[in-house]
């Protein structure tokens, strides 16, 4: 009898434990607290929507770091992330609490992210949209994740001119202008300068015109398979249709600013995400497909602007070594001249007109904010690049030429560091160090050969003309991992 009761208690405790660890909550109330579970590999659901398709989760990133994310459960793809100051650790000191605000913090390093609200409950609506609201009759929404997009926009989410979608590596962003969608790159470093625009889609205004002063536009992905620009009412000022236009699809649609600067659209087929829209279908039209000081030849692939600095680890020039030409340090730079090149997205680049190439080059040489110029001998356009040189287009026309500055001080420092490294490794055996150094030098010389990487167009579940030019197939597409 006694044993029976004991077993019953055990069973009850066991069910309670199991329930606590598997069932995801549908609502968070004040006093809620959760810490990351060390055994979870991909994501740890915290709060679920009513369908169970989405959950607010701890998402594992870079092995031991954590992001607060809304995850599409069947695929594990993140559709929203808290835009926190840095990433938290996947470990005990990290915790998410709800005390009126959702707060992600680390007991050691403090608050990473907070909604700064005084709400009563948190729910995940099936859009998916995370909402914090007040209790009671006027259950007003105080905060919603729809207003703070990360790199993704889901269908029916309003994207306004006050928002931006930023790629997860922080380099590329989508924003709205008065009558266009723009994609911008952060090539200028953390400074005051505005970002470089590399893609612009002006509203066609076929069915409704955009009226100046009648309010800002907004962008929305429709479940009918298009991306619409709206100013007022429901008639779109612009429609960009996806491959699956007016086809009903089983799962949600989303668009995302990718780490290579493209804007892509996907829908969930029930078993996988299908790519059905790409803003920039040609690889060489991406903002920097071959990395800094790279050269992209349409249909062929990547090489380097400078034949003497051939690709190291897939990059023509290590971007973290790029300095400031206007800095106080001796700003030495090497000059590269090359014919048969033109700027990418040239219709969006600033230019002046000069009578000759020499004049164009001279305007850049003496100006420390100028990193290079590209000249077209036919139009006399002198395009000015005021950020460290990214990928340039190789076109082969002899009347198009370029002049580029390559920061040299950084290269010297790098060689010094390499020397110190080798020295330490060899300890007192300086002689051996020299031998190794010499060997490395010889090797790197031998590797300085002109190499063309062929562009492979990786077709991940693409329907129609859109191909996924994913980062895996295109070595230096990802300029950094955040
Ligand atoms: C909730 O917790 C955070 C972090 O501990 C704190 O800064 C904030 O003041 C708290 N908010 C309320 C309403 O207690
Ligand atoms: C998006 O904006 C439209 C028009 O302003 C509005 O009717 C709709 O409710 C908004 N949708 C959401 C989810 O906020
Ligand atoms: C749309 O714009 C027209 C013209 O400016 C205006 O008369 C109308 O009230 C607007 N409608 C809405 C829903 O804002
Ligand atoms: C680099 O090599 C290519 C092909 O060998 C040649 O056409 C080009 O002029 C060279 N460029 C420079 C800057 O040396
Ligand atoms: C230097 O170049 C920048 C653009 O890179 C331009 O705005 C500025 O006017 C130039 N300065 C001079 C003195 O030419
Ligand atoms: C540029 O054009 C001028 C006049 O059309 C011509 O004389 C000159 O040779 C051209 N330069 C180059 C490098 O093609």
CATH topology of the largest domain: Agglutinin, subunit A
Bulk shape:
globular
> What ligands are attached or bound here?
2-acetamido-2-deoxy-beta-D-glucopyranose
**Average pLDDT level:** 82
Architecture per CATH nomenclature, i.e. the level-2 architecture of the largest domain: Orthogonal Prism
What's the helical proportion of residues? 10-25%
Strand content: 25-35%
Transmembrane segments: 418-441
Protein name: PAN domain-containing protein At5g03700
Keywords: Disulfide bond, Membrane, Signal, Transmembrane, Transmembrane helix
Domain Apple: 326-409
What does this 3D model show about the protein?
By secondary structure, the protein is of the alpha+beta class. The chain has three domains: 24-148, Bulb-type lectin domain (Agglutinin, subunit A); 149-281, Agglutinin, subunit A; 288-412, 3-Layer(bba) Sandwich (Hepatocyte Growth Factor), CATH 3.50.4. Helices cover 14% and strands 34% of the residues. It has four helices and 35 strands. The protein has helices spanning 2-22, 357-365, 409-426, 430-447; strands spanning 28-29, 32-34, 43-48, 54-61, 65-72, 77-81, 88-89, 94-98, 102-106, 110-114, 121-125, 129-133, 141-144, 152-154, 159-160, 165-166, 172-176, 180-185, 196-202, 218-222, 226-230, 238-241, 253-257, 263-268, 273-278, 294-297, 301-304, 333-339, 341-342, 351-353, 372-376, 381-385, 392-394, 400-407, 453-454. The strands form eight sheets. Strands 3, 4, 5, 6 and 7 form a five-stranded antiparallel beta sheet that branches. Strands 29-33-26-27-35 form a five-stranded mixed beta sheet, with no helix packed on it. A hairpin with a 3-residue loop joins strand 9 (102-106) and strand 10 (110-114). Helix 3 packs across helix 4 (430-447). The longest helix is centred in the first third of the chain and has 21 residues, at 2-22. It is globular, with a radius of gyration of 27 Å. Bound molecules: 2-acetamido-2-deoxy-beta-D-glucopyranose (6 copies). The site of one 2-acetamido-2-deoxy-beta-D-glucopyranose (NAG) has 7 residues, from strand 9. One 2-acetamido-2-deoxy-beta-D-glucopyranose is lined by residues 156, 158. This is PAN domain-containing protein At5g03700. The chain crosses the membrane at residues 418-441. Keywords: Disulfide bond, Membrane, Signal, Transmembrane, Transmembrane helix.
